[in-house]
Write a structure and sequence with these properties.
Layout lengths: L2 H4 L2 E2 L5 E5 L2 E6 L2 E6 L5 E5 L2 E5 L5 H22 L2 E8 L4 E5 L2 E5 L6 E4 L4 E6 L3 E6 L2 H12 L11 E4 L15
Antiparallel strand pairs: 1-6, 2-3, 3-4, 5-6, 7-12, 7-13, 8-9, 9-10, 11-12
Length: 179
């Protein structure tokens, strides 16, 4: 069994976990989320901890134990604290507006881009250049931010585009005249 898979998952106050066969549902103050885990995993709830174990260890089930434990730990963290991802628009005339659940982006194309936010994700726009996505599902928050970033990836010469707020763009020097 993997080292990560052996560690118990602490359950904070206000978080409730329901285990039904291979379906795990986690409910907390920020919302609820459910995922199906591999059937060969044995989940046991002990006081304020959840333990993932393997009844019959095989190479595949040992690897899946660490994955299962990490997924459930992310679910618990999501419903108790939530996850956020921030993007920054860099470039002259690059703007973002939020109209209900539709994010409208002006990125230098001939038309504005309208992006419908997935269910379970909320966004906020600050100063028309910073977009923050929030949600309980870590994978969905990251995927939504990655899809929006793909509309105009940052280019290495001027740094224009959509970048993560903590991302560092490696800059290249442009053409140089020969002397």
């Amino acid at each position: 069994m993997s080292r990560i898979g052996r560690m118990p998952i602490p359950i904070p106050d206000g978080v409730k976990i329901d285990i039904n066969d291979s379906l795990v549902k986690v409910t907390g103050p920020k919302g609820s989320i459910e995922k199906r885990v591999p059937s060969e995993m044995d989940l046991s709830l002990e006081e304020d901890k959840l333990v993932v174990s393997i009844p019959t260890p095989t190479k595949n089930s040992s690897a899946l134990s660490g994955l299962t434990r990490s997924l459930i730990a992310s679910m618990v963290a999501g419903v108790s604290k939530g996850f956020t991802k921030s993007l920054e628009l860099v470039g002259i005339g690059y703007r973002a507006e939020l109209q209900g659940s539709v994010l409208q982006l002006t990125l230098g194309y001939s038309h504005p881009i309208r992006f419908e936010l997935p269910k379970g994700i909320t966004a906020s726009v600050d100063k028309q250049t910073t977009i923050t996505f929030e949600g309980v599902d870590k994978q969905l928050v990251g995927e939504t931010a990655a899809v929006v970033r793909d509309f105009r990836k940052p280019e290495p010469y001027k740094g224009k585009g959509i970048k993560y707020t903590d991302e560092i763009i490696r800059r290249k020097i442009g053409k140089k005249g020969i002397k």
